[in-house]
What we know:
This protein has eight helices and six strands, in the order αβααβαββββαααα. By secondary structure, the protein is an alpha+beta fold. α1 (2-20) runs antiparallel to α6. Mean pLDDT is 80; it is low at 220-228.
Amino acid sequence: MVLGLAGAGMLFVGLRGILTRRATVYSGKWLLALIALCFSPQFLEGVKALPSAPGAALINIIIFPAVLLVFWLVTKGYICFGVSEELGAGAVKSVLGKLGLKHEFSLGSVRLEDGGVFQVSVQDWMGTMQIKAKNPAAAARTPALVAGLSEHFAGARDGVRYMPYWIYAFFGGLLLAMLLFLLSLFARLPHRNTAPPRQESAPARTTRENGRAPVLNCGVCAAHGRFS
């Protein structure tokens, strides 16, 4: 089930970008939930093994929240997929201009006139852009900025990077293929017969243990023996 949900989520992100041929915006919370699904089997195995192997089980249990903390820090804010540096920076400037917000671009950040500061990091070779609000003033402007970016990307086709979409589609399909393979292996396993064993009568069991065939005794045979 975990493999299926994680694979379907990654495949959806990849195919959506490939088929629509445009950049997309996702909240970091959704990506964090997807990562938590991928690592949850290790955590559950650690919980199950806690009574028998507490040392190894505790390591697996501790690793899970540690991984989530790291990815929570990495995926905070909003992540845009399929953007080049030119497309991402141009989209942010265009949206802020439409919102009537005076701003100043500096290295890795955008400062608004009202004091709001956004951290904007673009990985051009990877085709991703991350936007984080650095203070409450920027956090208040985040919903309008994200909505404007989604609208801007809907009509932008130039400068789209397909690298992240192909990566997500590949690994999503791989997880689903692994799930189908495991299900096929499970279906081929011989199923044990859970029906209770038949109870053998005491005379038959005694005769079988002595190596002789069981003798059937009925009332008709007994009557025939008396009158013969």
